[in-house]
Protein 1
Amino acid sequence: MSSVPSSTVHVPILVEPIVRALVEPYQLLPEDAPVHWLVDFTLGGGGHTAALLEALASAPRTARHKVLSLDQDPEALERARMRFARELEQGRLEIARRRFSEAEDLLEGRPVLGMMADLGFSSDQMDSAERGLSFQSEGPLDMRLDPTRGRSCREFLSQVSEDELGRILQDYGEERFARRIASAIIQRRREKKLPTTTRELAELIVRAIPAGARHGRIHAATRTFQALRIAVNEEMNELDCLLGRAILFLKPGGRAAILSFHSLEDRKVKHAFRQEPFEPLTRKPLEADEAETSRNPRARSAKLRIAERL
Ligand SMILES: C[S@@+](CC[C@H](N)C(=O)[O-])C[C@H]1O[C@@H](n2cnc3c(N)ncnc32)[C@H](O)[C@@H]1O
C-alpha cells in the first residue's frame, strides 16, 4: 500500500485572482477553436489545479478546454492521481512529473493561453518529517523536493566551500550571521561531525550565532533552512528556466501568474514580466488580505504577479 496520505493539508493562496485572470482569455476563444490548455507548473496538493478545472467547467464556452499540471515531486503526483481520478479519466486533466527546466517536450505544439506557478514547497512536503525540510520535527538532512535525485542537503554541505555557503546563506536567507554560521558548519565538517538530522543542524546554527540574537521573532535556524532548501533544489536556476523558456510557450493574449515567497524570486518575476513579449497586468504585486493571512499564515509573504503575452 502507498505511504502517501491521500489528502492534502496545503491551503492554496490567492486562488480567486489567479483563476479569474487565467480563465478570461479562454472566454474569448471562438467556439470552434481547438482545445486549449491551462498549465499549472506546481501541482502540489492540487488546490489551484482544482480551482482552474472548476472555473473552466463552469461555463459552456470554456468547458472544452483542459488543464496540464506538473510537479517534480512524485508524491504530489501520486496524491493527485487519487484526488483527480475522475478528471483524469474524463481527459480534462493531464498530470506529469517535470521540473520547470524539463517541461518543454510537453509544451511544444500545445496551444496554451494560461500558465501559473506557485513557487517553493507545499505544506504536505513541509509536514513530512522524512523530507527534512523542517527543524520542528526530527528528520534526515535531506530537503529535496524530488527525493529521487540530486544532492541531499547533507551531501551538499559535505561539498560546498565555506565562501559559497556564506554567500548562499546571505543571498537566499538574508541571514545576518551568514559567515559565522557557514564557518561553524565547515568547522564541524573538518571534525568529521557534520549533522545528519534537521535538529542537529538547527542546534548547530543556534550555537553559532551570538547569544543575544538567539531568541528573535522567528526561530534562529529559519533563514538558514530556507537558504539551504533554495540551494539544494536549485530553485533560482529553475525559476530562470521557467521565466526564460517555459512561459514563452504561451500564445499571444495568454497570461502567466506567478506566486513567489522570497524577494529574490519576486525581483526575477517582476523583471521578466516587464520584458518583451510580456506586459505586466499587475504594476505592484497582489498580496493576500487579512482574512486570508489569518486563515493561512503562509499567505503572509506571498506576492502575486500577472502578465499578458503581447
Ligand atoms: C507551493 S506548492 C504548490 C501548491 C499548489 N498550488 C496547491 O494549491 O496545492 C509548490 C509545488 O511546486 C513544486 N515545485 C517547486 N519547484 C519546482 C520545479 N522547479 N519544478 C517542478 N515542480 C516544482 C513543489 O514540489 C511543490 O509541490
Note: The chain has 14 helices and seven strands.
Protein 2
Amino acid sequence: MATTTTFDVGRMRVHILDDGVFVTDAGNLFGGSRKASIKGAMHPVLVESGDDLVLIDAGFGPELPEILVGRYELRRDKDLLDYLDESGYSAGDITHVILSHLDADHVGWALGPPSFPNSTVYVQRAALEEARQMPEKDGRRAAVPAVDKGVEDGWCELLETDGDVLPGVRVEVRAGHSEGHQIVWLGEGEDLALYTGDLAPAKIWLDPDLISGVDTDPEAARRNRIEVLSAAESRDAPVVLYHEPGDCLVKIRKTEKGFEAVPIGD
Ligand SMILES: [Zn+2]
C-alpha cells in the first residue's frame, strides 16, 4: 500500500489518506452487463487548518455495507483510521467532516457507524432529499437514517448551497453524479487545490464524454466536469482524485479530446 501523500496549500497542510480498494463489475459503474472488473481506490482527504481538522469523504467504513456484498469486494491491509494514525491524528481530533454525497463508498466512517465523536458532518440538503427518493436497496438511501439522526442529534449540518465550511475550505455544489454533489476548493486567492469527489474521481473520468451509469444526471455531470476541470487547469491547482488507484494527486492539462492528468507529489 502506498504511503500517505502530503502537500501544502496556503497555510493548510493536506494529507491524502487511504481506505483500501474496491473491485466491482464494470457494469455496476457504467451500466449494462460488461464482464470486466474495475478497481477503485478510496482517498479521503485530511486538512489541517489552524486548530481544526477537516476530513473530506470517509471511505467504506469498518466493513463493506451489507447491500453491496456480492457486488463489491473490498481489499485492504490497513483502513482509514490506520492512515489517520500514521498522519499523527486520531478519530477524536477531527472537527469537520465534509461528505461530497451519500454513496456508501464516501460516507462509511462518518455514518456507519459515526466514528468521529467531536466532529460536525456536512451534507448538502439536496443530496439527502435525493437519497430519500432512491429505491430501498440503493446505497444512497441506506445513508438516510444516519443523516436524519445526525441532524436530530445536532452532529450533522445540512447545507443549502455553496459556502465556506471554514476559511479556506469552500464547498461548491456541482451536481450530476448525484443531486447536491459538492466539490471542495482548498486555499485562498490564487493558491488553491481541488477535491473533485465523484464528479471526476479518477483519470478515466477526465474524459468529459464518459457516460457513467451511476450519474443521476449525466448531462449535468458532463457540463460540470468540463467547467470544474477547466477552472482547475486555469488555476494550476493540484487535484485530488478520490478513486484513482494510481497517482491520486495530479494537475489537469487540456488535450484535444478533453483533459489529462499530470502526476505531482512525492
Ligand atoms: Zn464514489
Note: Residues 103, 105-106, 198, 201, 243 surround zinc ion (CB under 6 Å).
Protein 3
Amino acid sequence: MKPVEYNTGKIPNWCPGCGNFAIWNSIKKALANLDIEPHKLALVSGIGCSGKMVNYVRSYALQTLHGRTMPIATGIKLANPDMTVLVNGGDGDGYGMGVGHLIHAIRRNINVTYIVHHNKVYGLTTGQAAPTSPEGTITKSTPFGVVDATINPLILAMATGATFVARGYTGESEHLTDLIMQGINHKGFALIDVFQPCVTFGGQYKYEYYDERVVKMDKMPSHDEAVKLAADQEKLSIGVYSQYERAPYEARHPEISRTVEMKDVSKLIEAFI
Ligand SMILES: Cc1ncc(C[n+]2csc(CCOP(=O)(O)OP(=O)(O)O)c2C)c(N)n1
Ligand code: SF4
C-alpha cells in the first residue's frame, strides 16, 4: 500500500494550515509502512474538526457521538480482534466529555490506538475553552480567563496505568508517523497526544509557539522523569513517555476471542423472533 491509496477522494475542509493535515498524512504513511489494508482497519472518531478524519482515510469508519469513541472502539475491537482500530478525536472530546470512557479503556488495556488532536480549544464550535486550555486563557466561553485547573493527559494516562503513552507534534510529521506506527504495533491501549495547532481559533498556541518549545526525547525516560517532563510547560518533550507489557483485554478474556468454538444459537434467536 502507498499513502495515497488511503485517500477516499474527499478533500478535507479543514482551514488552510490546520495541524490536522499533518495528522492525516502521518496516519496514511504509518498505515502504508505497516501494510494495513483498508478492510483490516476500523477508524473511529469523535465530533469536532478532528472527527472529520473518518471521511478522509479509506477504511471501515464510524463517527460517533461527542466523547463516545471509546465504547464504540472497544466493541469493534472485541468483536473483531484481528482489526486494527484507530481512534481520532479532539482534546475536548476525549479529555472533557469522554474522559470517563478514556480512563476505563486505559485500565482495561483495550488494544486500540488513540490519537488525540490537542489544540487547547474546541475548534469546530469556533474556539471555546477545552480541558487542556491553561488557566487564565481567554476564549469565547471564558472571557475573564479559564479558572479551572488544566488536565494533563500524559500524567492522567500514566497514573491510570496506560501501557503506551506518547506525545507528538504536527510540526514533526516523520516523528509523528513513527509514533503512530509504534502505537499500532503496541499490544494494548496506546495514547498518542498530538500538539495540533488550531490556526484559526487557537489563540497563541500556533506553530510559532510550539516550534520554540518542542524538543524530541532521545530515549524513553524513567517514570519519575516522565512525570516531570510531562508537567513542564516550557520545554515540551515529544516521544514515548511510557511503555510496558500487560496482556490486552481480549487476551485476558478467552471467552470473547473468536477462537472459542461457536455454539449453534439458531434456537435461541428463533425464541426472540
Ligand atoms: C453532546 C454534544 N455536546 C456538544 C456538542 C457540540 N460540539 C460539537 S464539536 C464540539 C467541540 C469539539 O472540540 P474538540 O473535541 O476539542 O475537537 P476539535 O474541533 O478541536 O477537533 C462541541 C462542544 C455536540 N456535538 N454534542
Ligand atoms: S477551526 Fe482550528 S482545528 Fe478546526 S479546521 Fe480550522 S484550524 Fe483546524
Note: The chain has a mean pLDDT of 95.
Protein 4
Amino acid sequence: MEPTAAAPALPRSLEQIRAEFPILGREVRGRPLAYLDNGATSQKPLAVIEAMDAFYRERNANVHRGVHTLSEEATADYENARATVAAHIGADRRELIFVRNATEALNLVAYSWARHNLSEGDSVLVTEMEHHSNIVPWHLIARERGAELEWAPITDDGRLEMEAFAAALERGPKLVALAHVSNVLGTVNPVAEAARLAHEAGAVVVIDGAQAAPKLELDMASLGADFYALTAHKAYGPTGCGVLFGRRELLEAMPPFNGGGSMIRKVGREEITWAALPAKFEAGTPAIAEAIGFAAALRWLDELGLEAVHAAELELSAYALGRLGEVPGLRLFGPPAGPDRGGILSFELEGVHPHDVSEILDRHGVAARAGHHCAQPLMERLGVPATTRASLAVYNTREEVDRLIEGLADVRTIFDG
Ligand SMILES: Cc1ncc(COP(=O)(O)O)c(C=O)c1O
C-alpha cells in the first residue's frame, strides 16, 4: 500500500534519520544490526541522549525543593518537560502525572480511582488483546473489591468485536480498559468510538497508549479518554519515565497513590492535606533527566511530524506484510494492511518454536522478539503459546525487512533439513 497522496513525507531522508541513532551503526554477529524489536523498546536519537547528557553535565539538582540556582533551573526544566508532554497530547499540565512507565500509570488508576469506586458486584471490562499491564491491575483490584473482570472479544483478524463490546457495555461496567494499539496484533483500535459508547453506558474509560505514542497524533479531548497511559521508552525516549493523563475532576477527587515527600500541603500528627495537582500523585524525587529526555523525544517526533511518521510506518508495514505472506508455512496474526494496522507483525512459522526463529534471526543480525509478549489471554485466543514479533519504527528500512525474510528462509532450511 502506498501512502495516500495527502500524507506528508518525512522532512529528512531515512539515511539522515538513521544517522541520528548511534546504535543503528553497530554490528551484531558480524552483520549490521536490523533492529525490529521496537514494540519492546525503541532506540534513542541524539536529541534525547544529548538533552539528558546536558542536564547531568550542567543543571543537575533536585526539583521543587531548593531556592538555589541549580535547583530552580532543574525545576524549570522538569516543569517545561511536563508542559511539552501536555501540549503534545492536548492536556492541561495539571492533568499530567509523571510516573515510571505505562504499567505504573495503570496501577495508579487501579489503586486510586478503582479502589475507591468499585464495590461488590461491579465489573471492569477489558479486551482479549490487552497487555498484562492492562489486565493484572484490574484483576487485583477487582478481587480486592469483590468486583468482576469481563472480557470483550476480538474478531479472527484481530479487531475489537464492536457488537459484542456494545453488548458488554449494556451490562454496565464501571470501568473500561482498552489498548489504543495492540502490542501483538498491531491493531489500531477505534478508541474514540469505544470511549463514546463506554461513556454513554456510564463507564470511566482508561486507554493504554504504550504502543500508540510513537506513531499516532494524540489529542485527549477528541479521544475522549478519562485516563490515558504513556511510556517514554517506546516513543524514542528513555526508560524510567511514563505519564498518566487524567481528567482533572477525576484526579481532584482521587486520593494519592503513593505517600511521601512533595505530595503534601501540610503534615500534622493527626491530619495530612495533599498538594495540588499534579504534585499530589508525584511522591518522592521524580525521574528528572528522564522526563527531560521524554520531552526531547516528543519534540523530535513533532519535528518529524506524526502524520508523516505514521504514513511511513503504514507503508513499510504493508511491504512487510506482503513479504511475510510469501514465506511458506507462515501464519500472520492481526488485521490486513490498512490504516488500522500498525507496524507490529506477529507470526507463527509452522513447526518451529518462536524462540528458535528469533535465535536464528539473531545470527543474521536481526533483532525480533519471541514469546507471549505479556498477552497470555490473547495467545490463548489465537491458539498459540507464543509468536515471533517484528515491530517497526520510523528508522526501519525495506532492506531490513528483506533481511528478516532471508533469515526466515534460513530458519526453513535449518528445520526442513
Ligand atoms: C500495549 C502495552 N501496554 C503496556 C505496556 C507496558 O509498558 P511498560 O513496560 O513501559 O510499563 C506495554 C509494553 O510492552 C505494551 O506493549
Note: The longest helix spans residues 69-89.
